[in-house]
Design goal:
Distance between the termini: 46 Å
Number of strands: 5
GO molecular function: manganese ion binding; RNA binding; RNA-DNA hybrid ribonuclease activity
EC number: 3.1.26.4
Shape: globular
Structural class: alpha/beta
Number of helices: 6
Cofactor: Mg(2+); Mn(2+)
Function: Endonuclease that specifically degrades the RNA of RNA-DNA hybrids.
Subcellular location: Cytoplasm
Amino acid sequence: MILKLQSKHNLIECGTDEAGRGCLAGPVTAAAVILPKNFKNLILTDSKLLTHKSRESLRLIIEEQAVAYAIAHIFPTEIDEINILNASIKAMHLAIENLKTTPEHILVDGNRFKPLATISHECIIKGDSKFLPIAAASILAKTERDRYMTALHMKFPQYNWNKNKGYPTKEHREAIRAYGLTPHHRKSFKQLPDQLSLDI
């Protein structure tokens, strides 16, 4: 499937997406990207459909060719305070606000968003496999968060975050059961099926 470059052809558009929403540990990370009008790439698509190597090579292309891009993290303490949906939207807002070029229209992956200033927006289900700017944002968010969790793994190797990136794998849950929670775990998430027995 060939992804579209724009939705509103007369406006400066950015795509935005997040990574890490369903994780037990680590930040939720969002990116925003404005691509040039002549941008073409036949490989770029939803980051979840690509290999690690492809994502990293595409990241270099996006950083080199984008008109503007920005990335933002919201960390577990704030996720626990405002909930993961609000944290995801806040991360997207921060990324968009940090763009060096202000967009006139926002393409959002998914079905939930809150208006940002006076900028128009549209929510697109599976937008990261339909629009290039959203796919580009998904690549930046995913690769940045993966790098963050890999670095964090050096301090907490028992959780194997370099592999599971904080997602609720069986291995991650077993490590939580054995070693407890770190300051990087989201306390508001159900960490274990028998959570009542976990001292948090």
